[in-house]
Amino acid sequence: MCGIIGIFNQPEAATLAYLGLYALQHRGQETGGIVTSHEGQLHTFNGMGYVADIFSGDVLSRLPGNNAIGHVRYSTSGDSNIRNCQPFTINYSRGYLSVAHNGNIVNAARLRAEFEAHGAIFQSTMDTEVILHLLAASKKDDLVDRLKDVLPQLKGAYCLVFLTESRMIAVRDPHGFRPLVLGKKADGYIIASETSALDLIEAKYVRALLPGEIVVFDQKGMSSYQLNGAKKKAHCIFEYVYFARPDSIVFDRNVYEIRKGFGRMLAKEHPIEADMVVPVPDSGVPAAIGYSEESGLPFQMGLVRNHYVGRTFIEPEQAIRHFGVKVKINPVKDLMVGKRIILIDDSIVRGTTSKKIIKMVRDAGASEVHMRISSPPTGWPCFYGIDTPTRKELIASQKSVKEICEFIGADSLSYLSQESLYWFEKQKPGEWFCDACFTGNYPEGDEEIQKAIQV
Ligand code: AMP
After folding, report:
1. What residues does each domain of the chain span?
2. What is the pTM of this model?
3. Ligand 1: does its nearest atom lie under 6 Å from the Cβ of 75?
């Protein structure tokens, strides 16, 4: 996962991009970067870690111009190192071109191997660099024509925002896997992964980009084009389950409301006698509120999160992840003694977080712990930009619900059903959403994906 931002025709564009990235920090914490355009030059600054740390001191004042793009990275393709920072900029025969990418190109390895076989040199291990090579190799003149020429060769998920000396261009892949929105601020335009970025910089939310849409911003204003080859929509359901911020509007719906609905449905499907409903913070909070409202059981913040620790899961080292749960969450012991607790979380991936939290709750004195998960079992890896482990490491692909319950040490465990996941949608499950992480039905039945699933 990553977060992207684009600012066009706004004074202090770098500062607005910085603030936008701040509001998208949950989408990636490994690296951050901003590129601005000014008087025919692109200016870049990027680094490892949090946005607030990267752009400290006078860094922003060294990024002049009214146009900027920015990126926060959470590696799903390529290693976690400075060479894989975005935006990624090239200086090629037609000038400067910089790009920020959210998503994952499924056939990138094959395309890269083809380029390398012809002597091309890559500077990073990111799939994004393949897009730049394709664009540089295209015979078409205008950048929009080159995008139309090369993007249909890509498989997978991409939301892109490009910056040249004079233009900004945003693209969303034809499946519309990842969110990308358009905003307006005075005479300028904003592109962002989520509306949380628009809110912070006081831009007006205009609309989501359409799947397959190319939007160009230049001196004349904004113009929109469509990539050839419409594909079945496949919005990522995991954005609703876990990834997006609850205050964002994603795929034209408020994420908080959707998550609360998951909790309400969970209470309908899997009620149990208990004294209180406790979320695993922060990801379980809206669903726990929904569960509490539906069940009539009191909602309690029985676990308190230390907000000064990053999302543990994002740290690439397994050792840090294990240590992280304790650093991050602590129980309110007096609340728990002798109590029957319904613990709500959004998902179980490897099962290690739930196991530690349940032990924590029991050690705090709870008499019973009933785990309720506001999504179906995560049994399949994502190849479209969510950082999930291989199939073997996903506990739901190896164990039954009963076995998972034993592993995590809960008194009972239930997941939201596939049907209830779509409480908000009249369409049949899978018709408008990619829910391959729950079903194994990948929207593109590629050879690449089939191979990757075997790992
Ligand atoms: P675990 O079962 O220990 O692997 O961790 C599951 C927890 O990680 C859940 O409570 C989620 O809130 C969170 N989570 C789920 N998917 C992801 C992801 N792709 N990246 C980061 N955190 C995640």
Report:
1. 3-231, 254-308+321-431+445-453
2. 0.94
3. no
